[in-house]
Every structure is written in structure tokens, then in C-alpha cells.
Task: structure prediction
Amino acid sequence: MADILQRIGVEQSSPEQVYDALTTLDGLSGWWTEKTSGETDVGGVIEFRFGPGGVDMKVAELDPGRLVRWDVVEPQEWIGTSVQWDLRQDGDYTIVLFKHEGWREPVEFMHHCSTKWAVFLMSLKQLLETGEGTPEPRDVKISDWH
Result:
């Protein structure tokens, strides 16, 4: 198994503010993709639509201000993986430890996804620090896979 691991610090934002950006449709559409819909409570499925396709996540666990975990429903390449954010305060920063875990093997698509997660985590940071993220379709395109 292989995992994507990322870490960012969000300045002047509480863990609760970061949590809200990860658990509300307005928050999610402000940093990941503008086309976000679905149910954000535990057991609900959130649908994220991008130019080339979509991602559906089932909300598996929520601990306000501390943890968000989703299990992947779609796309097929991600089935069996989960996405998790651990949040904690450290001085003036909320530390976000991100992981997309359970990849069967580190194929080229996983490398692409790792870079794109970093792009979108920077968008989350921008949203919380400046009020303006860069969700899809305004994100940085890194290849023809977007």
C-alpha cells in the first residue's frame, strides 16, 4: 500500500475555521472545485465535479476542529482509498496533516494526484488566509490530466 502525505500551516485561522472549509459545501467549493454538491454529514456522499470527471466521497468520520475523513466512492482508480485531514493549533497556525491512503501501488496517476492535492491544499490555505481560493476551474493545471 502507498499513501499521499502533505502538511500545511494555515496562518491566523483556527482549527474550527479550517474544519468548516472541509465540511461545508461553501467551504469545499471555495478551494477544491466550484461544482460541489451532496450531503456533508457522516454517512453522506459529497460529489465533486471537475472538467475531466468527478470524485464522490462518503463522509466516514467527523470530529469538529480535529478530524475529517472520507472514504472514496468514485473514481474507480481511488476505490479502497480514504482521505483524511488531522487539524491542530500550533501558535498562530492551524497545522493540517493530510493523507490520501490505501493506494494499491504508487502508479503514475498517484504521483499526479499527489501534486494536485498539494495544489488544492495551497488553495485551501489561500481561501482561509485571504478569503479567495483557487478551486477548479481556476486551479493550476499541471498536465493534460489537469
Summary: The radius of gyration is 14 Å. Residues 24 and 40 are 6 Å apart (CA to CA). The helical segments are 15-23, 25-31, 108-130.
